[in-house]
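Side project, low priority. Logging it here so it doesn't get lost.
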Amino acid sequence: MSFLQGWAWHHSVGGSAARGGAVAAGGGGGGGAAAINYVGRNSSGTNGTSFTFNAEPIGDAATGRLIVLCVFGSASGGSPDITTVPTINGNNMTVVAKQSGAGATGIMAAMYKFPLDTGTTANFVLTFTETVGRAGIVVFNITGANTTETDTADNTGTNVATLATSSTLTVPTDWVGVVFG
């Protein structure tokens, strides 16, 4: 199977919510079944610019496993962004897509990836450009798929208020996709 990454931004009126979803398209072939696993989420309501999430579950160890980390942060009236890419066990993750915060809500969201065959927990470190009042992560893992993405879909902009509420991501047969927003 091939891997298809998707990025979606959704802003809820009256607050913010980070949600992740995984879609696996069925079909034969591809040399095995790909699996997308929602592993968990965590957040901190403490004001700060740096957040460490230690011993976070990342699922069962597997050869070819890809860890997908979805990140969110919010600063009232600010424009938070990740200043450096998040790390997993001290290793830089690769950005898939990100949306910097802007406007009254100051909400940012991003998706990162890193191949990690070993371990069932990991330490994640996030660093923001300004103080955020809330930061969090959502963790997925993908196994049994070609982890080189072949397509992405995104819905980004600099002003959260003007972003469309949906994007289209087509997941063909024998592909898998991850959507976060």
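Brief comment: The chain has a mean pLDDT of 72.
Revisit when time allows.
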